[in-house]
């Protein structure tokens, strides 16, 4: 629960700082809401804040993709990340994110993921974007049988909307 408040606090701080900037010096900062799916962050809803034309931070909440598809007891995923964008005119982006899973099952106590992706997006004039990224996922799981490290390819797909 404390992690949720820390992520929310970080986003509120960043967003308020963007509003506090002089409008003549800030060019294209956006608040972006998105839904997406990948192995690390799960099926999720999130927010992304552009700090400048090349950097953005994101936070999301979701559930495990497999649990979502088979409608079993879902584990919750909380994620934060940072993204690099080549520029406003380019669709190229790369990012790294950290995800923490909370399981309802007593058999798995902790699971964390670090994912690094590179990808692009297709946008239209109304502010809706379809994004796609690929990369690698490192998973760290602790359960009754010990510690496990997992490495998987990761594909991230989703739709986002520029709120402002």
How is the largest sheet built, in terms of strand order? Answer: 1-2-3-4-5-6-7-8
Q: What would CATH call the architecture?
A: Beta Barrel
Number of strands: 8
What is the distance, rounded to the nearest whole angstrom, between the alpha carbons of the first and last residues? 29 Å
Question: What general outline do the C-alpha atoms trace?
Answer: elongated
In short:
The protein has 164 residues and is an alpha+beta fold. It is built from two helices and eight strands.
Account of the protein in words:
This protein is an alpha+beta fold. The protein has a single domain (2-19, 27-162), classed as Porin. 15% of the residues lie in helices and 58% in strands. The chain contains 2 helices and 8 strands; from the N terminus they run H-E-E-E-H-E-E-E-E-E. The chain has helices at residues 2-20, 65-70; strands spanning 31-38, 42-50, 55-63, 76-85, 93-102, 108-123, 128-143, 146-162. It has an 8-stranded antiparallel barrel. It is elongated and about 50 Å long. The chain starts with a helix and ends with a strand.
């Amino acid at each position: 629960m404390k992690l949720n408040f820390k992520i929310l606090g970080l986003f509120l701080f960043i967003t308020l700082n963007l509003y506090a900037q002089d409008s003549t010096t800030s060019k294209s900062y956006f608040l972006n809401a998105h839904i997406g799916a990948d192995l690390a962050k799960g099926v999720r809803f999130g927010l992304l804040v552009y700090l400048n034309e090349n950097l953005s931070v994101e936070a999301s909440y979701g559930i495990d993709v497999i649990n979502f598809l088979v409608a079993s007891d879902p584990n919750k995923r909380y994620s934060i990340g940072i993204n690099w964008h080549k520029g406003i005119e380019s669709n190229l982006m790369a990012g790294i994110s950290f995800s923490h899973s909370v399981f309802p099952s007593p058999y798995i106590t902790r699971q964390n993921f670090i994912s690094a992706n590179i990808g692009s997006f297709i946008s239209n004039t109304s502010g809706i974007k379809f994004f796609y990224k690929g990369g690698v996922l490192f998973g760290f799981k602790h359960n009754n049988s010990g510690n496990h490290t997992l490495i998987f390819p990761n594909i991230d797909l989703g739709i986002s909307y520029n709120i402002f």
